[in-house]
Structure prediction request, 710 residues.
Amino acid sequence: MQAIAVEPGAGEPTLVEKPRPEPAPGEALVRTLRVGVDGTDHEVIAGNHGDLPAGADRLVLGHEAVGVVEDPNGTALEEGQHVVPTVRRPPNGTNEYFERGEPDMAPDGEYVERGIVGAHGFMAEYFTSPAEYLVPIPERLAPLGFLVEPISISEKAIEHAVASRSAFDWEPESALVLGNGSLGLLTLAMFESVLELDRTYCLGRRDRPDPSIDIIDELGSTYVDSRETPVSEISEVHEAVDIVYEATGYAKHAFETIDALAPNGVGVLLGVPEPWSFEIDGGRLHQEFVLHNKALVGSVNSHRGHFESAIDTLEGLPTWLTDDLVTGVYGLEEYQSAFETGDDVVKTAVEFASI
Amino acid sequence: MQAIAVEPGAGEPTLVEKPRPEPAPGEALVRTLRVGVDGTDHEVIAGNHGDLPAGADRLVLGHEAVGVVEDPNGTALEEGQHVVPTVRRPPNGTNEYFERGEPDMAPDGEYVERGIVGAHGFMAEYFTSPAEYLVPIPERLAPLGFLVEPISISEKAIEHAVASRSAFDWEPESALVLGNGSLGLLTLAMFESVLELDRTYCLGRRDRPDPSIDIIDELGSTYVDSRETPVSEISEVHEAVDIVYEATGYAKHAFETIDALAPNGVGVLLGVPEPWSFEIDGGRLHQEFVLHNKALVGSVNSHRGHFESAIDTLEGLPTWLTDDLVTGVYGLEEYQSAFETGDDVVKTAVEFASI
Prediction:
């Protein structure tokens, strides 16, 4: 079968031929339908993130997949059932985090991530997985099933943000998303349609006309151009907000978030920047944290429950949004197009089998 | 009646004569028994924090009080009942934060604080208060009733810290308290006796023999001398901990806390430093937040529920601890001794009437 793999440092993925995998006991064989491409893939391709599986010389990419069960192999799944795989797996047997269904909270060394760290991904015509990591999705949603993983990331992030404010009566009315990539836009839509916030803002650094700004406008959200209004000035120019969702990976945003928050607000951080030293007014920021009961929460990965919520969320998203968000789905013969970036690209996927 | 007041910038409190207050409808008249002294009082005395009541030229100090109801004035309280007053009051009539019992979450302008910001404190022979802000305390605990307010601060801080970890299965085993003042020591005791953590650490910068280090030892906790082991090295020298409680007001500690935390840990900030710019490795700290699901939560003040929990906590503290912690209770004739600081001072109070 064909797979899309990357050699660390090679800078671009290639098509490779691999044997079709055989499911082990407890595993199902899945025929891959579509796999999304995101910023993490680009970091893995550039050699800035991720790790090869033991003994491998290249990594099969892909962690945002949807497929159809080809062989249930004695598991409770059914042939023909559509599924979305979760990403983390236990590295050796199992451990307490996986046993309690919280692999997303596992520390370093207690997990591998398919397509990212230490395990091959889903960008192949077939993949196998323990049935417990395959989340059923209605067939009608399968064409967009590659959006479930990124939405699940925000399901977790928002769950942790809201939990951090659960010791008091908190009714958020406003949110700011830092980053107008596909994850930022999906989250903006979630703030509008799931949390039903009154006012939302999305920060980017692009000029109109731009497909991501069009989506921001259409959602009824306010586009904030970071070149005109830096994060630290948003509270003055617009308003201090109840939630900040950081999806830029730009480290200064993590700390500027404290000023962008209204009293009792929470910032949730998702970016993974490189080391970078800079100066902050730490005394003032520390005081802001305390006197206004603010919180910052880091969030990575997601668990099966978040995938299940994400499927519900996906079902509730307006059709125009997913139509506009997915700017390209490319067959294997033109897989390279799915990895191209540019002003007209929002979200892409590779199609391994037609739906 | 006599009161202890401070003129902003005068640098030390003085005894003043004031008329005994008359309770308004809904208020009770309380005879003050004891009022504790803490770091906030010293900041108010130094002119670094706080604000005068409208039209006043000096501020009556004191926010950690215990008293006895002299005149219930038609409220549900009883004459002779021992009470601890909460600190925040609505500035004009009331507002939503007070109505829902969460004055601690009120933003600037929506509260005054007795003895600190915009309202006279409790360091007077009598004070009045709306009955709803007077929390009954058993008579046997009244001699230590001035510890209820500081304990309530930590009740809230710990509640918010735990809430921030409530979206997953979190069983903290270790905690680090930054600061070996009376609030730090009380919190250390709470971590030992209330949360029943296995391992606790307390950071200070004092040499043995020292009464606060004796208390740390006696609690079974580990003293960390910040001159030998800075906060950023604690995870290597000792261990990364599940909870960090910051009570130093030293701004670098807020950010070094991120490194002192174990994966999935939470740091709760209570200090109120002045503006101070310094360099941090913001990229690495941002990454730490995200990849290890860490959280930082600021916490200020406390509400009536926290005072009620604090009374339970106070009841459970060992006698040796409160004996060692309270290094001086001084009558009005020697009130100045209660404001002296030094290596042999941990916690002091002024006694306005014998118990």
In short: Chain A touches chain B through 56 residues (CB under 8 Å). Chain A has two domains: 2-136+318-351, 152-298. The longest strand of chain A covers residues 27-37.
